[in-house]
Amino acid sequence: MDEKLKTQLQNLEEQLLTPKVRLSRQALREILAEEFFEIGSSGRILHREEPISENGIGEVQMELSDFNIQELSEDVVLATYRIFNVPENQYSLRSSIWRYKDDKWKLVFHQGTKCI
After folding, report:
1. What is the pTM of this model?
2. Which domains does the chain have, with CATH numbers?
3. Is the dihedral of CA 77, 115, 89, 56 positive or negative?
């Protein structure tokens, strides 16, 4: 496993949990690919082309752990990890697909699944 790549993608995932990124439409657009979509842990499906408000997508209190990657091709990586949602006292399993394009990694797909 490429530890440098793993660290880079984990840092990007962690940025997506910070108010600095979540509350900035521009910062989100820097990380999310144009074709990005998500299946949230609520079951809701979201697309990047849906309007992102000036206030972004809202603050969260979440802790990331157990981060791993699997290289699917030279420029596509699957990231898997666990999230602990502090206010809800709830864990979820997460998976993201990242693609390297135009000299940067962009998030193409994300899914969250609540743990029971």
Report:
1. 0.89
2. 3-52+61-114 (3.10.450.50)
3. positive
